[in-house]
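Pinned message: reference record for DNA-binding MarR family transcriptional regulator
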Amino acid sequence: MTIVARSHLKLDEFLPYRLSLASNAVSQVIARAYEEHFGLKMHEWRVITVLAQDGELTQQEIVGRTKMDKVTVSRAAQVLERRKLLRRVTNADDGRSLRLSLTAEGQKLYARVVPAALELEAEVLEGLSEREISELKDVLHRLEAAAERVLSRR
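Predicted structure (tokens):
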């Protein structure tokens, strides 16, 4: 595919802007539900989900997995630790870092939130066919990979 050079930018047609708007709109729906029903901020939910799926990780591994910055991950982990939803222990391989894992309470909360998350996802995707959803996921993965390639060159 050839990209045509343009001399001006129409914001409403600028793909990064459209992606940001769509992402923000979906995130607001989900964040509001997590906050109202489970007392979780979006960043806290992401940390819980990654730990539920991947098991014990360092904060830096969570940063890499979620693309959240290290301060955001650290703050989310502190909140979740105070709520007794995760535990942070010194990393035996590197005393300067911490390893995070869900507590039994954190695992229970995750099990309660998942059905609500899946229901919200279905609601947001309502009106899209299975094929469109599959194609959208494929395009998003390819865009993420392309963005990573661009970042690695800079």
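Pinned by admin. Summary line: The two ends are 23 Å apart (CA to CA).
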